[in-house]
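Need the bound structure for zinc ion, inputs here:
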Amino acid sequence: MDWLEEILIECPQCGESFAVQIETAVDGVVETIEDCAICCRPALLRITTTSGEVRSVEVEVT
Ligand SMILES: [Zn+2]
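Answer from helper R.:
Posting the output first, comments after.
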């Protein structure tokens, strides 16, 4: 079973979209900081997962 899901997020700093891999093995809300693939500035991701699937993603400026 693969517990990694690739999601596309929109960078809050430059507005470009880029893909990140999210661990979905644990239900609940996970916060992680990912550097934007385009402008390299960090974005805070708040990801809600249930049953191994991503339900919602919020992106904030750190
Ligand atoms: Zn960016």
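Comments: The radius of gyration is 11 Å. The first strand starts at residue 4 and ends at 10.
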